[in-house]
């Protein structure tokens, strides 16, 4: 990379020096400065572009994976990087470094993470000024990073966010002769419309931007068949559907690892502690000190991941329903977390406890694989994408209740691997029905889990090899 940067910098300096000399010469002649400068620039520009496109023996085995977001919270792009590295490609992974990526990404020698800073924009004046300055600065930042790295055979970019990354990446790929691949997770303008409204000028401009630059990519991937059809019909884009699949790290967690996880969490979060506070016992599990055998406690609460209708569930138990106590674990972080925790505390729930732990990347799949039920409140802004959270849950054979939106049935099969609800009352009734036999595996919840075990389907690696690898290896 140092040699490439030096070459580019040398040409840039040479261009400025020659333009300066030409200007000094023109000062003593009848030729105007701008004309001479433009002539020199026009003569040197092809040399500069040629230097940007200079290939070496390793160029065909280099791929840039780009996300204008937090790498640690972009699991699909992490999976792309790992799949590329498994096939011998050297990956330059560009994105924000706010959250720690999975250890497999960090330990892979063929993956180099190039962190970029999130741009905030000017904090004074109208919001449009803040937005415009943010886009301009981010564009310059991306140009610098993409033009100074070694020549990449492909640039695989996540959209959204696509402003300004689609236009900048397309321009750089045009200059450098790299193939440009967009992985469509959703539409950026539909996400913006959630806060600004679909008629807002910025939203309409963003839609025009995606419509113009989107079709310029060499190849396109998308997350659902519904999005594939919409891209073809309304955008003129031919895309390949690459369904999200759980990585190998998402699987049912063995009892021993469950207990170790619960013990770690109990050391920090009292909701996981047993009343006796014994080192070998948690609210869910107990380890026999004699032989080390781990068992789940018969009177344990049900472990539910994500937020849910706690007050309705609490009412069922107080009304005499035979239901287990519930521990709801809400993962992740957000700017309103403290606000909602205060609201939760004000409910004074007796049979439902809520915990919001901060998990290491390696512990998240272990927790999913230890849970009894998952709840997904993801609503698609376009109605064309699917929640990665549910994909991970299914990888752990964890049944789900998911809020309804269009195309969700491409993932959640009602009465087969989960249930779909439209409001909190319907969700509460579903929880009552699913947990009425807990912890027995004879009920509907056990049936869903058995169905998931028997229909795990294609894993991420096989899915990727079938749909993406041919695009990467296709002759130029």
Return Rg in Å: 27 Å
Q: Name the average pLDDT.
A: 84
**Count of individual helical segments:** 18
Strand content range: 5-15%
Strand order of the largest sheet: 3-2-1-4-5-6-7
Main sheet attributes: strand count, strand direction, barrel closure: 7 strands, parallel
Helix content: 40-55%
Describe the structure in your own words.
This protein is α/β, with parallel strands linked by helices and 476 residues long. It is 44% helix and 14% strand. It is built from 18 helices and 15 strands. The strands form 3 sheets. Strands 3-2-1-4-5-6-7 form a 7-stranded parallel beta sheet. A 6-stranded parallel beta sheet has the order 12-11-10-13-14-15, sandwiched between helices. Helix 9 links the parallel strand 6 and strand 7. Helix 7 (188-196) packs antiparallel against helix 8 and helix 11 packs across helix 15 (424-435). The longest helix has 25 residues, at 2-26. The radius of gyration is 27 Å and the shape is globular. The two termini are 24 Å apart.
């Amino acid at each position: 990379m140092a040699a490439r940067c030096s070459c580019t910098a040398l040409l840039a300096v040479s261009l400025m020096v020659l333009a300066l000399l030409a200007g000094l010469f023109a000062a003593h002649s009848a030729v105007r400065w701008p004309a001479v400068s433009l002539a020199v620039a026009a003569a040197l520009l092809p040399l500069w572009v040629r230097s940007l496109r200079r290939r070496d023996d390793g160029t065909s085995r280099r791929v840039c994976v780009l996300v204008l977001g937090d790498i640690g919270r972009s699991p699909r792009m992490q999976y792309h990087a790992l799949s590329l590295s498994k096939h011998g490609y050297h990956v330059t992974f560009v994105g924000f470094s706010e959250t720690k990526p999975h250890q497999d990404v960090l330990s892979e020698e063929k993956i180099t993470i190039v962190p970029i800073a999130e741009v905030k924009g000017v904090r004074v004046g109208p919001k449009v000024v803040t937005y415009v300055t943010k886009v301009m600065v981010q564009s310059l930042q991306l140009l610098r990073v993409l033009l100074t790295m070694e020549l990449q055979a492909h640039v695989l970019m996540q959209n959204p966010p696509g402003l300004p990354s689609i236009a900048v990446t397309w321009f750089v790929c045009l200059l450098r002769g790299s193939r440009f691949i967009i992985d469509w997770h959703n539409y950026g303008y539909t996400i913006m419309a959630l806060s600004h409204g679909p008629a807002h000028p910025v939203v309409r401009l963003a839609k025009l931007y995606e419509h113009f630059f989107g079709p310029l990519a060499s190849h396109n991937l998308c997350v659902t068949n519904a999005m594939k059809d919409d891209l073809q019909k309304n955008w003129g884009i031919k895309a390949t559907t690459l369904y999200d699949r759980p990585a190998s790290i998402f699987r049912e967690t063995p009892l021993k690892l469950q207990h170790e996880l619960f013990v770690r969490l109990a050391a920090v979060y009292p909701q996981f502690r047993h009343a006796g506070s014994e080192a070998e016992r948690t609210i869910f599990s107990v380890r026999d000190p004699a032989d080390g055998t781990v068992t789940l406690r018969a009177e344990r609460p049900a472990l539910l991941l994500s937020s849910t209708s706690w007050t309705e569930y609490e009412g069922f138990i107080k009304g005499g329903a035979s239901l287990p106590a519930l521990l709801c674990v809400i993962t992740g972080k957000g700017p309103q977390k403290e606000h909602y925790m205060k609201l939760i505390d004000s409910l004074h729930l007796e049979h439902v406890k809520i915990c919001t732990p901060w998990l290491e990347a390696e512990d998240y799949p272990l927790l999913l694989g230890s849970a009894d039920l998952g709840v997904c409140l993801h609503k698609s802004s376009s109605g064309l994408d699917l929640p990665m959270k549910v994909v991970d849950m299914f990888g752990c054979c964890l049944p789900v209740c998911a809020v309804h939106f269009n195309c969700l049935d491409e993932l959640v099969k009602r009465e087969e691997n989960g249930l779909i609800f439209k409001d909190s009352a319907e969700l509460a009734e579903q929880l009552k029905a699913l947990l009425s036999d807990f912890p027995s595996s004879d009920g509907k919840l056990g049936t869903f889990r058995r169905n998931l075990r028997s229909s795990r389907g294609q894993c991420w690696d096989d899915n990727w090899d079938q749909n993406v690898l041919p695009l990467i290896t296709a002759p130029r």
